[in-house]
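Sample A.
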Amino acid sequence: MSALLPSRRTIYLSGPVSGVPEKNDPLFAAVTARLRAMGHRVYSPRERPWDGARSAFADYCAFICAEADTIVMLPGWRQSHGASCEHSLAECVGIEIIEWSAWEEALSRQPEDVSI
């Protein structure tokens, strides 16, 4: 488990999709895989079926409110209306908010022998 998040977390992964090449799928997939390799449970909206904005967003919000204890924000989220809404919801329900870029930088500074 990561020294940055020493316990197993239930994470909602949030970031820009619209207007990003490949709908940001490569970054969502890479971060999801890395977090899961650390032992965390990850909900990535890019792995969910898209059945319309209203229905999909309702599912995302339900997970954030009822299950997640952490939201990880991918680079560019501030320019995304949907990710900004998810960030605001996370603030309202009081779950931990982590910027992926800061977390990734901290992980890169950990000694090689530290298990992540």
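Sample B, a different protein:
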Amino acid sequence: MWPLLVVITPPGLQYGTREEALIDKLTVRSARFAANRPLVSEGEVETDLYRISKGWAYRYHATTSGCRQILDFLLPGEIVVL
């Protein structure tokens, strides 16, 4: 199962006060993840909401031949449900 929610913020766009308050309410904790470490395995369903503040990540599908098919890049400013 893949993204339930992805919000991409165009460069220069600022959230309004109400939107920021909602995002802050939904992202009540911060987390730091090590590089090159899977956060969620394919088929797992997570409900945590994250806003990427630094670095980047990607979603991929593991093919039957063992390769990775990149589905999406996640960049700073994006809000994602893993």
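Observation for Sample B: The chain has one domain: 6-81.
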